[in-house]
Structures are given as structure tokens and as C-alpha cells.
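idk why but the lab printer keeps eating my pages so im just putting this in chat instead. protein + nicotinamide-adenine-dinucleotide:
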Amino acid sequence: MTAQIIDGKAFAARLRERVGEFAASFAEKAGRKPGLAVVLVGEDPASQVYVRSKGKATIEANMESFEHRLPDDTEEAGLLALVEELNADPAIDGILVQLPLPDHINEQAVIAAIAPDKDVDGFHVINAGRLAVGQRSFVPCTPLGCMMLLTDRLGDLSGLEAVVIGRSNIVGKPMAQLLLDANATVTIAHSRTKNLPDVVRRADIVVAAVGRAEMVQPDWLKEGATVIDVGINRLPPEPGKEKGRLVGDVDFAGAQQRAGAITPVPGGVGPMTIAVLLRNTLVAAHRNAGIDLSEDVV
Ligand code: NAD
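predcted complex ->
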């Protein structure tokens, strides 16, 4: 069997376009564009790249982008004061504080300061709690993007066996909640799981969110399984090359011979994350302005 490639890049491009159209009609109704504020503290090169591409994507989706770049030695109190300002600003619908923050700042305190209705990353405990009890919330972008790819490919997930590898607050746990809400039978595996290959072998759906290059081996997969690879890992550079290749948590070449469908790295889950961030911002804008939006259409 040769797996179908799940083209997250193309799916994300379509989602971004749809979000852009809805954002334009929001602007006509509300007299302003949806606004996303992104806060970056420090000089982390990867974070700088993320923030730049989020800003560009926001503008392309007919939204207003507000960037706040603060120096590495910013005090926690200063960052909290900025978050308060953004909470109170009616031009801003979504607030994203780029993680990780410098060590002297308490990340949880900063996330807790974001107004839950502007928490488009879905990291605030109120939104995590709402997701856990099945109330309307903001869902973290990466797992929501994975879910969109899964339902697009499989339709109804009822009764399917799903194994999520990884239990982080931003990927593994919300992913498991979403699969459970969709009536899958869900197992969360993690670093202490015994016999991981056997656990993965029973899965119709495998979501790998670990951060270990090519850990999931082809013979761990049930024939025909749908594999969503969240991991982003850079291999050491080959001789003569400056940078190593990016790979996921799944041995892609081998898995392609067993799975029914699989996301590539890059070009699978990665592009979905920004697209869903824009989607969440669009939803926040409608909720904040009291304008109806059928949230299923985006
Ligand atoms: P994390 O480090 O917070 O969590 C990793 C999880 O993997 C932990 O829960 C741990 O229990 C589990 N784990 C570690 N070793 C394991 C092992 N040997 N066997 C089974 N489980 C094991 O990471 P995270 O933030 O959830 O991210 C996971 C990966 O996804 C990383 O590669 C990250 O770069 C990537 N990621 C990608 C996107 C995207 O947009 N595509 C977004 C977020 C994270």
C-alpha cells in the first residue's frame, strides 16, 4: 500500500483564503478589520521567523496586525501591563504572546493575564477548561488544524481507535479532547508508556507530537492507518550542507508503505497552525463585535 499524502499546505491555503473573504465582509459590517496582536520578547531567531510570518499572513487575510517587540530584559510587570492594554483595546480581537518567554518571566502568569475572549491560542486555563467540558472555547491552533485534516480525510471518526503520542498542554492533551468529542476511542501515550509500538499498532488514527526525529517506525502502524505527524525536528547537517533536513516524528518513507494516509514534514501540520490562528482571530472578532458567524464554515 502507498499512503495518500495529506496536503496540509494546500488545505491551509484554502482556509486562509476563506478566512480572508470572511474578514473582508466582517470589515464591511463592523467598520474595522479583525485585529491580531502578537507580542515577542527577546531575540530568539525561530520566534522572530514565526512572528514575521504570522504578521504577513494576518495582513494577507485582510486583518490588522499589531506587533510588539520587547527587549530580552523586559520585566514581567511590563509585559503584564502591555497585555492589560491589549485586553482593553477594542481594535484587538486576538492576543498571542510568542512562547517561549525568557526564563525570568513566568509564562503561566502571562497566559493567565490574557482576556479569555482574546486568547486565540487557546492556552488560557478558562479555554482549556471549556474544551474539557465541551463548552464553546478557543482551541489551540495546532491540534484544531490536525482535526480539520482528519475530518476532511475520514469524515465521521465515531468509534475509530485513535492514539495520540505526547501529552503537552498545547498539542497532545487538546488533541485527545477533540478526538474524544468526535467520538473516537482515544489513548494518550507518552514518555512512560509501556510497549508503545503495540499501543500504536491498534490505532486507526495516529497523531505523533513528541519531538523525536523519525521515532515512529513503519511496523508500529496498522495497515491503512491515518497518520498525522506534528513533530518538527532538524537532523544534523549532511556533509557539505549548512543545515540539516526537517523531519517529523514518523519515519515517513517507511510509513508511506503501510499507512492509508500521512502528513508530510514539512508541508503537513505546520502550515495549518497559522491558518487556524487566523481562523480563531476571525471567530474572536465576530464574537467580540456581536456579529453572527457560522463557525462551521471556517
Ligand atoms: P513537548 O516537549 O511539550 O511534549 C512532548 C511529549 O512527548 C511529552 O508529553 C512526552 O511525554 C512525550 N514523549 C517524549 N518522549 C517520548 C517517548 N520516547 N515516547 C513517547 N512519548 C514521548 O512537545 P510539544 O510542544 O507537544 O511538541 C511536540 C512536537 O511537535 C515538537 O517536535 C514540536 O516542534 C512540534 N510542534 C509542531 C507544531 C506545528 O505547528 N506543526 C506546533 C507545536 C509543536
